[in-house]
Design goal:
Length: about 325
Amino acid sequence: MSVTIKDVAREANVSVATVSRALNGHPNVAEDVRQRVLGIADRLRYSPHHAARSLSSRRTQTIGVVLPDLYGEFFSELMRGIDQVARERGLHLLVSSYHGNPREQGAALRTMRGRVDGLLLMSPFVAGAEALAADLPPMPVVLMNPALVVEGQASVGVDNHGGAMAMVRHLVEAGHRSIAFIAGPEDNFDAGERLRGYRDALSQLLPGVEPQVLPGDFGEASGHRAGQALLEGPQRPDAVFAANDMMALGCLFAFSQGGLRVPGDIALAGFDDIPLSRYVHPPLTTMRVEIAELGARAIQRLLADEQDGPHPSRSCELLQPKLVVRASSQAGGSG
């Protein structure tokens, strides 16, 4: 028969409440009583029931993570960064996905109520961004790459606009004058910022050159379709900049199928620097987003705000992408 907290209290000749306070490290317990309770609990091999402890202390030692998807290298790397910090702090993770459907986001958030101590949320959708606050559960929350930065609401994101401008600048400096862009989903904030960066850089660096934008959805298949469209088009660009690496890899495959050499016939670049991008042929030039670091910074921020309270003056933290030049952009170098 398992030992209960009442058995420990009876052995120590104190109340159940005193045992609970002693085991949870509360300061209002005399040190000699705390040591006696801990010694008896150890001798009896008492293990607190986690669910009961959560009810009494209102703590679950669990962090919720709600993502638009769990598929692909981006989300795998993001979760790796979150999980590493969680394990270091002795915390558990409760992970949910709303499968890219903004309408299911609210349901995913509601499942977290009462089950986690804090929440990490990635909500990149522009539509409904202003109404997101109504769906947030009453607990510490950090938004990752949010479509809308809310004053006083902690968030960690990526400077997608600046990163896209840096990539176009690199392609121009490498001698390319006609640069096509494979866009991401229309309602995705990250995709919109990368498209805006492409357009702004083109306007500044190559005035008079018309943007050439092909549709995409961040998936490999859409990059492949864009590559096929470029192969069949009347005029081939000098370079292609895809809004993420997965589309760039799909485009690379289409070019290979069509007999187009990269970078000999056309340059190619992506965004994110997923692990696979350095192992294809040729290795992909890209903007490195420290994806695992994004996840790690988000949970670190959550734990800091949970302990010290939110800091409105530093509510938004932006990570800066880094240009990684590899063979695919015909500029030499590797990374």
